[in-house]
Design a protein that fits this description.
By secondary structure, the chain is mostly beta strands. It has a domain of about 60 residues. The protein has no helices and 10 strands. Strands 1, 2, 3, 4, 5, 6, 7, 8, 9 and 10 form a 10-stranded antiparallel beta sheet that branches. The chain starts with 16 loop residues before the first strand and ends with a strand.
Length: about 120
């Protein structure tokens, strides 16, 4: 635990990645969050392997995302978008969304969320 007055610098190899249970071929690494003393936002890095997907779901909180690499499809409500490195996304809290990587390169993005409950609810 860090004091909120302490700056934190974390190298890429210090982030712990875990597989996302509800998804296929997806890993999530928490880069900075409340446990580092960040008072407002957490940033995470996700990777989506070729053929990987995150099924339709909603979250309690908004998402701001920045695509780092690859090309993949994001569905938000009734719309589908093809995103590539350099693209930015805003996904409102409660919006149904999903991801699918049809390409042959791993997709990766950074996702910023407000600290607190980021509960995922799968859409049946």
């Amino acid at each position: 635990m860090h004091d909120s007055d302490d700056a934190v610098i974390r190298s890429a190899d210090e982030a712990d990645y875990e597989t996302v249970d509800a998804a296929e071929g997806v890993e999530k690494g928490v880069l900075i969050d409340a446990s580092d003393g960040a008072p407002t936002f957490a940033i995470r890095r996700f990777t989506i392997a070729p053929g990987g997907e995150i099924p339709e779901h909603t979250n309690e909180v908004e998402h701001e995302q920045y695509v780092l690499q690859g090309e993949y499809t994001v569905g938000i409500e009734e719309e589908e978008y093809t995103v590539t490195a350099g693209d930015s996304l805003f996904i409102p809290a409660g919006a149904v969304h999903w991801y699918h990587n049809d390409g042959d390169e791993t997709g990766a993005f950074v996702c910023a969320v407000p600290n607190g409950d980021d509960e995922i609810e799968l859409v049946e």
